[in-house]
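Below is how a single chain appears once it has passed through the pipeline. First comes the sequence as given, then the structure the pipeline wrote out for it. We keep one example in the README because the format questions we get most often are answered faster by looking than by reading.
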Amino acid sequence: MFTMMESGSLVKAFGLIEQLAGREGAASLNDLALGARVTKPTAHRLLQSLIGLGYVQHETGGVYRLTPKLRWLAMDWTDGRLATVADPILRTLHAGTGETVNLGTIRGDRICYLTTLESAHALRRVTQGEATDPALCTALGRAIAAHLPPSRRDQLLRTSSPKPRTPKTVTDVEELRRILTRAHQQGYAVERDQTDLGVTCIAAPVIVRGECVAAISLSIPSARVDGDTERRWIAQVRSAASSLGDLLASAQRASA
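Resulting structure:
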């Protein structure tokens, strides 16, 4: 059994991770292949998988680098713990807006809803527990993707193949790239009628020491959104996301 595992992709992938960790987190493809004793094509294939999972990023000059995601796993920052820490901030946003509040993170090419606090309004978007949506058609997913390392973001754009959820869903890769660029510049994403007709979502990234670990959003029936309310809600969502990022950074420092 152990011999079979030694020759498997899992062991080779961990070999590459160990090589990166042993080289202060960054190395070329050639150095990694030699150090892990695998062929360059094998190293490249496994590194692409690790990039897709968010554990490695590919930088200019052909250098690969570990992302902080492994450190978060080692510190036991599970989805459940993240949701628990976020709960008071999400409830404050929920009380201040009266609209549905979501906390989500990207898994593969989908957004996973870790927490949803439903609006009390009869007209609202209802999200089932442990639901997922295609990341790039949602404001949550776009807010996160806009702040991913370039290699991870590019791979997400190449491999997600978004399918139309509504007639307004953007599926063109270059248009999605422009949307992500704009979201990065603005610090938030707004999506109207692209995941569900009649629903507008406003999302902001949760940044911890330069890394986007999640996003917070409001889901609102488009009929209740006008210019003034949208501007107010954008400010509230961004404030909540910033507060959660600061809180997580403090908790990370305390447990380091």
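The radius of gyration is 19 Å.

See the next section for the split statistics.
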